[in-house]
Amino acid sequence: MRWLRSSIHSIFSVRTSVSEAPPEGHHHSPDDVREAMLALAGLTTDDRAASLIRRIRYAADLEALWYMRGELMHMLARSHGEVIAREKLEDLSELFTDFLPRGLRSRPSPLNGSYRPSRPPGSDEG
């Protein structure tokens, strides 16, 4: 029965939240991220926006907020256009930089200037 106690202990004692205190010298807080998302969600006024605002406000941690970015992007793109929505989400994503594990950070996209293709130019297959 010792294994049962240690299993239960490991389930409830380890907290893998990514919304811990920011690293030294960091000037954004998790609340700054939440407020920025609430401000962006408040740019549209429909039932989906109200639902998203409620979910952002009561999100348990930064990881939950990170995964809400897609819905926020969709909502902003529908009301303001994809280019504007992408710009606003890029600014928002920068607030997450030091809070999330490396695997959850945004990757370079061919749709913006930070993308570097893995193949050298002129090596088209065909």
UniProtKB/TrEMBL annotation:
Return the annotated region ranges for Disordered.
103-126
Superkingdom of origin = Bacteria
| Protein name in UniProt | Uncharacterized protein
Source organism per UniProt: Ramlibacter agri
